[in-house]
Amino acid sequence: MKERYNKYMMDKQPSEDFIDQLKEKMQCELRRKKYGRRVVVKGAVWIAAVVIVLFAALRTLFGSSEILDMPKQEPTVLTVQESEGPEENRAQVDKPVTADQSDSASMGIITNPITNTSAFNHDISLGVSNDYFVASGFSREGDSRYPMYAVFDPITQRCINYLDYSVEGFSGTFKAAAVIDENNVLAIRSEDESFACELDFISDGSVDNSIRLPNLSFGIFQSNERIFINSCPKAKQTDLDVFDAKGNWLWKMSWDESIRFAGVEYDGLNYYAYGYRMENEENHALVMCLSENGDINWRYDGGDREAFIKAFVMDTGELLLLGNSYVKKYNTFLFKLKDGLSEWRRDFFPSVVEDAALGQATTKMAASAVKHKDGMIVALNMGYPRANSIALRYVSLDGDIRDEWIEDFPELNSCTDVALASREGNVYLSVSGSVVELADWGWEDKGDDDLIIADIPKHIFIKRVSVPEGVSAE
After folding, report:
1. Distances (CA, A) of 212 to 3, 216, 217, 222, 331
2. How far is C-alpha 170 from the geometric centre of its chain's CA atoms?
3. Tens digit of pLDDT for each residue in 283-313?
């Protein structure tokens, strides 16, 4: 176990020999999959595979010029569509927004083996905890699944904590993880073929203790040295269990409704749990103000087909909530509350990306956000043909868009998970997704031994965000 763990705790960049050995190992693994088992690929999988490979080939030919050493393209131009909402809710754009792809390339994309997470060959999730990036999922060996997680330091782009449960004798998958510090992690583990869940207390890469959780526990949030566990043990029942960092149970709240929390924030006196509730197969935005003992001070129910994804506690006592709306379009909005009462709302409608090589694409839902200087940076997923790009939007705390630009990840087919973290005054962006390389598919002489889409390796990329000059109103 110690040797496996030390492999991911390297304190220097890997050598060229190490990288070559890793590539050779991955190729051997692909050959083992090819000849060790026979996978019958149905017609639908063939069509999907061809589309993915053709897109990857086109993206390689016409993608980010600096990264691929091709002639530089004209800057990508983004324009914000006219708001369809009331005048008072419209987001104000100070100037035309442009994005020079060379800004993205100049930061570099981290591609060393530490960020190669092909071992997470199923259901990898990516999040932020205590300003660290956390990836969780499982690997598959035959009929068995083994939980895995990795903690990455945004500044060094290195894995600082890692655990592969295949050496611990456990099976299943991780649902989510919370980072206490570099050496200590709490993780929700779901067992195979059941809804039973365990909360594992992990220190220095080994499980020290486990606590049985309610069935269908899926969310873990850390705030003010408190650990919040969100679970739904049965239909229309939601529990929120609270522990201290040592695993001592403190209090619990229950609701006779289905609630999915996205996070918990603390202002020194109260906790703010936010997300959405489900009713009649639709989402309804929701935020609650809870005392340190679990009493509800106030509750605010937002609009239909909406969800809060991030909350910011202001020094003046207000609560800023970033959310997604699913009415008519994939819109995002910023909402300001004080003492449970609405003060204002700003709606941000999709931006259209015009690209001479790829055509037109639009932004979709907000995936993550982080405070920066006098505003916040919001990461939005992009639709095809820019699904392997992320739109970053700089928004003032008053709800005005200051700038918007694009970060490209040409190695990926699409950005499936997105997270932003802030460390030492810098903002870091991490994405995960499937990497499609023609050499990995080996089309010739494959017959019915072709790889399926689940065999495509997944990677994590981390880069420091280069915020355009002049966006701050300082």
Report:
1. 29, 11, 10, 19, 39
2. 25
3. 999 999 999 999 999 999 998 899 999 999 9
Nearest to 9 by CA among 144, 205, 235, 203: 205
Give the H/E segment covering residue 55: helix 43-62
The DSSP result for 208-220, as a single string, is EEEEEE-TTEEEE
Question: Which residues, in sequence order, are CB contacts of 189 under 8 Å at separation 6+?
Answer: 147, 165, 170, 172, 173, 174, 175, 197, 198, 199, 200, 210
pLDDT score, position 364:
83
27-56: average pLDDT? 47
Chain centroid, CA 232 distance in Å: 22
Task: Decide if pLDDT at 167 tops 60.
Answer: no
User: Are 178 and 222 spatial neighbours (Cβ–Cβ below 8 Å)?
Assistant: yes
Measured CA to CA, the distance from residue 311 to residue 137 in angstroms comes to 26
Do residues 335 and 345 make contact, with C-beta atoms less than 8 angstroms apart? yes
Which residues sit opposite 394 in a β-bridge?
377, 403
The per-residue pLDDT for 240 is 93
Buried b (16+ CB within 10 A) or exposed e, 343-360: eebbbbbbbebebeebee
Q: Which of 96-105, 351-360, 383-392 has the highest mean pLDDT?
A: 383-392
Between 41 and 144, the higher pLDDT residue: 144
Angstrom distance (rounded) from CA 254 to CA 276: 15
pTM of the model: 0.71
Which of 246, 140, 248, 150 lies closest to 205, judged by CA? 150
